[in-house]
Every structure is written in structure tokens, then in C-alpha cells.
Amino acid sequence: MTLRYKILAGILILAVTLLIAAEATKPEPVNWFPSYGKIDKIPFGTYIFYDQLSSIVDKDRLEEVNIPPFEFIDSTKMGTYFFLNSSVYNDEAEAQKLLEWVASGNTLFIAANTVSKTLLDTLNLSTAYYSTTKLIKKRPLVNLSNPQLKSRSPYLLDKDVSTTYFDEIDTLKTTVLGVFDLMKDEDSTQIKEPKINFIATPFKKGTIIINTFAEGFTNAFMLKEGNARYTAGALTYLPANGKIYLDHNYKNSKAVAESPLYIILNNKYLKWAWYTLLLTTVIWVLFEGKRKQRSIEIIKPLPNQTLDYTRTIAGMYLDKKDNRQIAIHQINHFMEYIRSTFILATDKKDQDFIEKLAAKSNISVLEIKNTIDFINTLKPKAVITEDELIQLNSYIENFKKYHQDGRIN
Question: Are strands 140-144 and 175-182 parallel, antiparallel or unpaired?
Fold first, then answer.
């Protein structure tokens, strides 16, 4: 390696090192992705909720489900099915199966901003998105309706989020469990215009509970002082007995990393160590390859001498003027061509043979009969003239040509 290359390599490595150091020491930005994943510690993950759930509900009652409800539900599963995500959209078939399961005496608890339309229509419910142009900040205030669970001051999520509420309910059957409003005039001490976001409604022998404020179960909400009481209060509506099936299929972020690089790329220090390794490898390949590269000798391939050999053998026969031997070779070669191409035995060249060959080759019976008759005439002869040899070759070449061209009678 020349001095010039060494200087350039040193400058490049120094620049990369400074860039990596600057990136590694830069504060990592907050990830506001609404993952709702069990292991996610980001603001809208649910690590705290699932970590504290066993202190609110008996751990033996909890069972995690990682497959779709359509596959999981059967007559042996009794209890409560708990869904938590920004959106829980069950298709029509799955929604009907969930409703049948609830109808047999089970409970469905859904905490999601968006719920399957099939479920809403069946329960005579309708949701709407609440927004106002008067407010710069759209930070929700929530509270529970039960006087024993209701807080004097509502619970605040100090983050602008989309808000969904029930604008239409079946008042004869539906019980309002909680309300919300957007914080107005920097006043977080009261809900001025309550809107329903938490309801329970009976369905035949079972119960369906829906909370459209899914953020109330996330890390960002529960870490704010006092907010965990809202989440705990919402969970009091779970049945006191029976299994609780925790859904992990309807999650924006799956609970288990599927790629080995997940750990590396989601850790700032491991990520930059990985990038450094890749860059160092590329630099080493470039400079080491230049140093060791050598010209490769071109080896000519062996010539194909089959054609020369054929010409030599043909010349030997022509020089001897042994027309009969040449004719016998041509006939034998032609018979082998018929056997391999048309899968026909050539020991008997009778009328049946001629008809079968005509059918398979798509050549007229008359042309094939003329060729076979001429061959049968030549074979017994002790001397064959050049004209006869040329005529034989003409018959054979015409047969092959007609067959390859697909001549139709």
C-alpha cells in the first residue's frame, strides 16, 4: 500500500470514528409508535400494564393467546377474552364467532380506539371521532362513572392523541362506565362536556365491555402520578372468577422478536458497533483486495474435434469407394433414429410397421413405403452404385426433413 493510500485510509477511518461517536452520544429520540406490545417500554407500549396485572388479578387466571380468536375459541374455553390495541378489527366471521362465545355466558373486554363494525352494529352502538379546531392541544381527560371509582379530578394524558367516543348507544341495555373530554383552557380539574368512551352491555348470557381510550393502559398514561388508579378501576369490571385470555395477536408490535438483528438494531450502542464492523470489513476488502490482486492467465478451452473426426471417417469410406458399406451404415443409423424417436421396433418392416411409423411421424404411408421398399431392395445387393447411394441418402434426408418440419398429410 502506497503512502497516499495510507493517508486516505487514515482520514476515512478518523471521519467515520468521529461520526459514530457523535451519533452514539446524541440523545435517542422518543419513540411514540403505538405498539401496545407487552415487552415494549416506549410511551405507548404496555410493559407496565402487563407487569402489574398479576398484582390486580390472580396470576393463575391469566393465559396468553398468540393466535387469532377464530382459531382459539371453542366450547372448552370459558372466561374473559381481553383485547388491548389501538385497533381490534375482527372480520365478520370472527366477530360472529366471538359473539356466539359471549352468548354462552362469557365476557369480552376490548380496549381499543377502533372496534369491529360487526360488533358495534350487533350491539346497536356507533362511534365517532371527536375533534375541535378551537383547541391547539388535544389532550384527553378521562374518568370513571361509578361514584366509588370516580376521581375528584379527571385523569390526564399529557399527549395529543386521536379520541373516539360512543355517539349512539342502546340506552335500555348499555351501562356507561366512563367518560372523557379534551382539556380546555389549561383547566384539567373537570370534564366540561363529557362524552361516553367506556361502556358495558349484556349479550344473551354474557357481557361485552368496550373502552375506546386504549391509551389508558399504556406506559405514558400509567406513569403519570395517580393515573394507575384509572386503569385499576377499569379492570374491576372484569369478572371475579374464571380464566382471562390475554390476546397478543392483535398487536401493532408483536411480543417476540422474529429477527436475530432485532436486539442489535434496537440498542443504540450495539447498532453502531454493528455498523462499525460492517464498514471496517468493507474497507479491509477494498485495500486488501487491491494489494493481493494478480492477473489470471487465460486458459483456452480444448477444441471440439468431433466434426474433424467425422469428416476423416467419411473421407476414408469415400476414398475406398465402398458404397455398400456406406449404405449399410446409413440404413443402420436410420433404423436407430426410428427406434429412438418413435419407439418402434425395426426388426419387421412390414405393412403394420409402415402404418405405425406414418401415424407417429405424420408422413404419408406412400412416402414411407417407398423409403422402406428401397432400403429392403438395397440390403441384399453385393454392389451398390453411387446413384443408388445418393437416392438412399435422399430418401432418409427427406424423411427427417418432413418430420422435423411437421408436414401434414
Answer: antiparallel
Domain 47-252 has CATH 3.40.50: yes
Q: Give tens-digit pLDDT for 189-200.
A: 788 889 999 999
Residue 49 pLDDT > 70, yes or no?
A: yes
Bridge partners of 179, per DSSP, are 143, 196
In the Cβ-directed half-sphere of 126, how many Cα atoms lie within 13 Å? 4
pLDDT, tens digit (0-9, with 9 covering 90-100), for 355-409:
888 888 888 888 888 888 888 888 888 888 888 888 888 888 888 888 776 544 4
What is the DSSP-derived secondary structure letter of residue 228? H
DSSP string covering 310-337, please?
HHHHHHHHHHHT-HHHHHHHHHHHHHHH
- Gap between the Cα atoms of 27 and 268, Å rounded: 10
Give the whole-angstrom CA distance, residue 173 versus residue 182: 27
Cell of 373: 421398399
User: Cell numbers of 237, please?
Assistant: 369490571
What is the C-alpha separation between 175 and 108, in angstroms, rounded?
15
Report whether 150 contacts 144 (CB < 8 A).
Answer: yes
Q: How far apart are CA 396 and CA 372, in angstroms?
A: 10
Count of alpha carbons within 13 angstroms of residue 319, beta-carbon side: 6
Provide the whole-model pTM. Answer: 0.60
d(CA 348, CA 213): 91
Residue (of 219, 257, 256, 211) closest to 236 by Cα position: 211
Instruction: Cell 500500500: give the residue.
Output: 1
Type of residue numbered 332: N
253 Cβ contact partners less than 8 Å away, ≥ 6 residues apart: 33, 35, 36, 37, 40, 45
Residues 65, 72 contacting (CB under 8 angstroms): yes
